[in-house]
Structure formats: structure tokens, C-alpha cells
Design a protein that fits this description.
This protein is 66% helix and 0% strand. It is mainly α and 435 residues long.
Length: 435
């Protein structure tokens, strides 16, 4: 095997096996830093041996065995470090007495579920949860994570170091929550994955509307989580939502990269396979008990992709689903999107009245979503001067270049100057006016 093929082989294996490898090492030794170091050492050893010997039949087991040997060697050299880890292991054993896995002829036990819940522990800041999830379960290095969130590598490195220190000092356990805890802890994990996907679907800053690498990673990680928790209907609902929304990615911008709203998208460019998979998962998410928020959002997304066009979309059913969502997980974003759906069902005046009720909502201040939605409905009502004022207000708070250009074109079409103030970065959840 030549060196180039060996490197490619290691990279492919590492991408696929990294989360399991790291999770198994953390469970065995109780320390995230040690696990990352010896995992990197194992990859370095693979690059040395595999060009001569070929990629082994079970590369994941080879990497795990090599990493564990290197961890044991380090602990033998550093007795103080070993003593500290022994205390951590004792804590872990009290929290979860399952023995550490030993690789052999059987498949390597999948410990990633423990790592999901440790990375997304509520004691950690949300930005740290997201970064750790991408690094530990996504196999991304610190510069990659930093690029995804458009911060300097040193800044992201500090965030990750602080998060790992918090895990160590607070003795956050690497374990799956007990059955009576799962209902409280799982939403936090899902929220992290949803934030990653949302930033991929509609980037908060930058020159591109979408960050497809982020969207793909969120979908990949959610697939893993669903395999690990196959009976959790909200995990199925989140994956369904992601697939049904992401299915439209190719139609959301034109050949020049300009934003194309749902009304004008070429539905023939939507990904039929993802739509079919998403629709199947919606049924799974809504069957067997009361619906959860992600299942309801997925059902809304399914109604969008099932319609032949915007005019024939089942807007009454979408409004009814937003009513359910508002009871399950009320938020300004839900209220805003419901108002847009009401405008499609009952006309722009009805939707505008609901948006007017949100004008003093503090969580929508300094963001472009509400003025952009109001501007569109005012435009449709022929209230040009008011619409232009709202477009200017939206332009003052939008940082994504593609969205900014779209709003400027709408303003220019009304006879405005198409210019807005400098924006302010805001991380977003649900979007106003489905794109």
C-alpha cells in the first residue's frame, strides 16, 4: 500500500471510528485529555504500520488496542497522574459499575451514548457543549471547529480547555442517565444537535446562506444517536425534521448564490430520498404516545414538502400544528412562524396583527426576523412606506450576506435605497418565513 492510500485509509477509519474510540477510552480510563492523546497516538501508529502491513480487518479494534496500550504505558510512567485517574475511575464506578470494555473478536461496545450526555451536560455552557460534541463525537480538530463557528483557533481552544476542566473538576460522570433522568437530559442533547443543524441550514454570518458541512455533521450525529436510542421518538422527530428541511438545500439558492424563497423554489431539485426517509421517521415520531416538539416540527416540514406548490399547501393543518407546538414548547420563534402561517391561511392582515403583538418581545429585539416578516406582509398589503421602514430595520440586524442582499433587493423594489446599517451577530433558532 502506498503512503497516500494509507493516509486516506487512516483518515476514513478515524472519521468513522473516532467517536466510538474516544468514548470507549474515556469509559475505560475516566479522562478526556488522556483519551484524546492516546487516540492521536494510535492514529500516528496506524500511519506508520498500515502502509507496510495493510489496513487490518477490524481497524477500529486495532486502534483501540493500540490506544489502550499507550494509555497504560503513560500511566506507568506518571504515577501521580495514575493516582488522580484512579480517583476519577472510582467516582465513575460508583455512578456506573459496568466494567470497561476489552477489545477482542467481538464488536467493540458502543460507548458513544455516554459521551453524548457528558459533552452536553447542563453544567457546561451551550457553546462548550456544541464544541465538545463536534470535537469528541464528530472527530473534528480544534481549528475545524473554530472555522465552523468563525472564531479564532485560540478562542475555540480556550473554550474546549475550560469545558474539559469543568468536566474534570466537577467530576461530571461519563454515563447514560438513568431512566428517570433521561426525559430531563435528552432534550439538552437534542438541542445541541439542532443548534448545529440550524447554523448549517441558515448561517448567522458569512457570505453563504448555508454551511453544508455543519448540516451534514448534525444529521450524521443525529443518526448515530437514533441508532443508540431507537425507542426515543423525539430523536426520530429531530432527524426527520433535519432531513425534510435539508432536502431543499439545492433549491434554496440560485446559480449566482442568491436566496430563493419557498414560493419560487424548483421542487424538482428537492432530494426525494431524504424526503421519503424523513416522512417515514415522522410517522415513527408521532406514533405511540403524545407528540414531542421535534416530531411536531417535522410534521410541519412534511406538509411543506408534500405540497405541489405554496398555494396548495395545507396551511390550516400547519396552523393547527403550530398551535400544538405552542402548547408544547412556547417561544417567540414559534409565535412568529405561526403568524406567518396564519397569513398564508387567512391573508396578510391577519398575520400582521399577530406579528404586531410580538413587537415588544425582548427575545426578538436586535434580530432581523420580526421586521423582515412584517415587511413582507406590509408589502403584500400595499403599505409601501411602512414596508420600506421594516426592511431597513431588518437590514440593521442581519449579518448573513445572502439574506442581506435579498432584503436590500426587496427594499430597492419598493423605491428604497437598499442600504442598511451594520448588523450584529445573533444566533438563531427557528426561521421566519420558510425558505
Amino acid at each position: 500500500m502506498d503512503d497516500g492510500a494509507a493516509v486516506a485509509g487512516v483518515e476514513a477509519v478515524f472519521r468513522e471510528e473516532h467517536g466510538r474510540l474516544l468514548a470507549t477510552l474515556v469509559h475505560g480510563f475516566g479522562d478526556l485529555d488522556l483519551a484524546e492523546e492516546v487516540a492521536a497516538d494510535a492514529v500516528e501508529a496506524a500511519l506508520l504500520h498500515w502502509p507496510r502491513e495493510g489496513v487490518p480487518r477490524r481497524p477500529g479494534a486495532w486502534l483501540l488496542t493500540t490506544a489502550r496500550r499507550k494509555a497504560v504505558d503513560r500511566l506507568r510512567r506518571d504515577r501521580a497522574y495514575a493516582a488522580r485517574l484512579a480517583l476519577l475511575r472510582a467516582d465513575a464506578e460508583r455512578a456506573d459499575p459496568a466494567p470497561p470494555p476489552t477489545p477482542g473478536d467481538d464488536d467493540i461496545p458502543d460507548e458513544r451514548l455516554r459521551l453524548f450526555f457528558a459533552c452536553c451536560h447542563p453544567a457546561l455552557p451551550m457553546e462548550a457543549r456544541t464544541a465538545l460534541t463536534l470535537r469528541c463525537l464528530g472527530g473534528m480538530d480544534t481549528p475545524q471547529v473554530a472555522r465552523l463557528f468563525m472564531v479564532p483557533t485560540a478562542t475555540m481552544a480556550q473554550r474546549i480547555v475550560r469545558a474539559k476542566r469543568k468536566i474534570r473538576e466537577a467530576r461530571i460522570p461519563f454515563r447514560v442517565p438513568a431512566a428517570d433522568e433521561l426525559a430531563d437530559r435528552l432534550p439538552g442533547v437534542l438541542h445541541v444537535l439542532y443548534l448545529v443543524f440550524t447554523e448549517g441550514y441558515a448561517a448567522g454570518t458569512g457570505a453563504a446562506l448555508q454551511r453544508l458541512d455543519l448540516a451534514d455533521e448534525a444529521i450524521r450525529l443525529t443518526r448515530i444517536l437514533l441508532r443508540l436510542l431507537p425507542d426515543e421518538r423525539e430523536v426520530a422527530g429531530l432527524l426527520a425534521l433535519m432531513l425534510l428541511v435539508d432536502a431543499r438545500r439545492d433549491a434554496r439558492v440560485d446559480a449566482e448564490g442568491a436566496l430563493v424563497l419557498l414560493d419560487d423554489q424548483d421542487r424538482g431539485r428537492w432530494d426525494g430520498d431524504r424526503i421519503e426517509e424523513g416522512r417515514t421517521l415522522v410517522v415513527r415520531a408521532l406514533t405511540g404516545g403524545p407528540p414531542g416538539p421535534y416530531g411536531v416540527q417535522a410534521a410541519i416540514a412534511a406538509l411543506h414538502v408534500e405540497a405541489a406548490d405554496v398555494a396548495t399547501t395545507d396551511w390550516p393543518q400547519i396552523v393547527a400544528l403550530y398551535d400544538v407546538l405552542d402548547r408544547l414548547a412556547p417561544s417567540p420563534a414559534v409565535a412568529l412562524n405561526r403568524a406567518v402561517a396564519v397569513a398564508m391561511r387567512d391573508g396578510p392582515a391577519a398575520g400582521l396583527a399577530l406579528l404586531d403583538d410580538l413587537r415588544d418581545e425582548p427575545r426578538l429585539q436586535g434580530r432581523h426576523l420580526l421586521p423582515a416578516a412584517r415587511a413582507d406582509l406590509l408589502r403584500r398589503l400595499g403599505r409601501t412606506e411602512e414596508a420600506a421602514a421594516e426592511y431597513r430595520a431588518a437590514l440593521a440586524h442581519v449579518d448573513n450576506g445572502v439574506e442581506r442582499e435579498f432584503l436590500a433587493r426587496r427594499l430597492a423594489a419598493l423605491g428604497g435605497d437598499g442600504l442598511g446599517g451594520t448588523g450584529r451577530a445573533e444566533r438563531r433558532g427557528d426561521r421566519a418565513g420558510d425558505q
